Amino acid sequence: MSPKHYFSPFVSSLPSSLPSAYLSLSFSPFFLLHAMASSSLKHHKSHSLNGFPTPAKRTKLSFISDSEIQSEFSHHDQTIARINNGSFGSCPQSVISAQQNLQLEFLRQPDNFYFNTLKPSILHSRSLIKSLVNAHSVDEISLVDNATTAAAIVLQNCAWGFNEGRFSKGDVAVMLHYAYGAVKKSVQAYVTRAGGEVIEVHLPFPVASKEEIVSEFRKALARGKENGKKKVRLAVIDHVTSMPSVVIPVKELVQICREEGVDQVFVDAAHGIGCVDVDVRDIGADFYTSNLHKWFFCPPSVAFLYCRKRGEEGKGGDLHHPVVSHEYGNGLAVESAWIGTRDYSAQLVVPAVLEFINRFEGGIEGIKKRNHEKVVEMGEMLVKAWGTNLGSPPEMCGSMIMVGLPACLGISNDPDTLKLRSHLREHFQVEVPIYFRAPVDGEVDSITGYARISHQVYNKVEDYYRFRDAVNQLVSDGFTCASLSN
């Protein structure tokens, strides 16, 4: 008998006001036990609740243990200090198993899977995401391959504005200088080719406060409007920049866009859900995307794209998936749910992911808090060991932080960062991305290299000690990047 049917007397007793996503999530066995315990406390004077015995006192919940966490990620290469969750994310074994079951279900009988499983399962995942990010309606949530695909959807729509005459040639799109490289390319491919002008917001790094970012953003918007001769049609704002990694005050920047008459705001939060707080209604952007495979434990690759409803328009504008298939014209969410025969299993495992997350104390909020605290602790340990500095205040990082590397390593350009990263991987079994910061005029012996360290639930303090000791060894040996061949 399925958990849903076995616990149906309990579920039927839940308040009818609960959202459907909550009821769907409640069919997770862990969540049901938690909910039953909480509900039983409210009825502690009675002997039973719909046939279930009521405990005399709260039963202490058993959260996931350290050994169980390591078992969930035992497929990771155990010889590598993997402190780079930010690049590709991570997926626990229980979710991988759920995905494999879905893949086999499709391969056994693809027709049945297509007609009876795929669409309702994608809708279920969208409903859960809708609740997690506080969207107003499930119609505002589409599932796509990744944040790069979401960017293409939004920027394609902007290009149509130029091509169809709604925008004037030379109207502006504003984006951060530290925008993700693929998104910059998309802006070039869609907006620039359609006749738009692109203005980049140059941000300081290291950054000392969010006020620095707000100030530079206002300056860029002023340049974009050029005394009223042009209009800013789109602002592309990162929630968490990739390299260098900094949490951007998106709510404040969105509000500035509203005050300055920017047509639409797109928040690229590839590192959003599971890393920082995400409340799309509170943030107030027109579009918000986040990968689910970076910090939310989904397998690669899947992301959500939120498109804010606009009055009677209903779907946040005439957006379409770049891959046109049979569902074209039925709304972005439906179009995205079928773009031809492919593996959709990554989009269907959100319930299994939530079951994994709810094994942790505090759920996703607890995971975010612990990851943030630990990455700050490890970052401060490293800069103390090397006599360097962090790239931002702790409050401006999520689960990643920029750590200055000793200047004597001689990082003088972007190719040096790639060579040093490979050297750390091959000779010290440390996987960490490195960022080149060009020295400002007049600086002498400045820090030009920063490592972006991540912390996820599987990381151990020994991972960061190995990185510390590797760099100390390089410094002791008199190593410089100039000694590495191309």
UniProtKB/TrEMBL annotation:
Keywords: Pyridoxal phosphate
UniProt superkingdom: Eukaryota
SUPFAM superfamilies (UniProt xref): PLP-dependent transferases (SSF53383)
Pfam families recorded: Aminotran_5
Membrane-spanning intervals of the chain: none
Record domain Aminotransferase class V: where: 124-390
InterPro entries: Aminotrans_V_dom, PyrdxlP-dep_Trfase, PyrdxlP-dep_Trfase_major
Protein's name according to its UniProt entry: Aminotransferase class V domain-containing protein
